[in-house]
Amino acid sequence: MKDNNKKSLHVKTGDRVIVVSGKDKGKTGNIKKAYVKEGKVSVEGINMVTKAQKPMPAAGIQGGLVKLEAPMDSSKVMVVCPACEKPTRIKHTMVDGKKVRVCKKCGEQLDV
Questions:
Q1: Among 24, 47, 102, 104, which is least packed, fewest CB within 10 Å?
Q2: Cβ count near 97 (within 10 Å)
Q3: Which element (helix H / strand E) includes 17?
Q4: Which CATH architecture has domain 1-80?
């Protein structure tokens, strides 16, 4: 039986990414939160869903429809390199004893 639990992601919180498949294909945004165990990411302004919110007068929350970002699979996003401004795959290299992410296209470090 195959173990489908992902233990690491190719993206981190704060990375600028572009969506490469799905309804939001071509849109860019920053990663708001990475769910490593599930292999999902939440991107600002992408994959918006509408949820019904019950009013909670004690907490001061008004009821109604609320729009928020739903998590999407990490395989649907690609990192945008800050140096060359292109969507790229990443490779890992060792620099000063640390494992860093590097752009495959221009060779610039993503982890600063």
A1: 104
A2: 5
A3: strand 16-19
A4: Roll (2.30)
Contact yes or no for 110/84 (Cβ under 8 A): no
- Beta-carbon neighbour count of residue 37 at 10 Å? 9
The pTM score is: 0.80
Where are the chain's structural domains? 1-80, 82-112
Band (111; pLDDT cuts 50, 70, 90)? confident
In the DSSP assignment, the letter for residue 46 is: S
Give the Cα separation of 18 and 29 in Å (integer).
7
Question: What CA dihedral angle connects 108, 15, 87 and 97, to 10 degrees?
Answer: 30
Q: Rounded to an integer, what distance in angstroms lies between the CA atom of residue 88 and that of residue 15?
A: 12
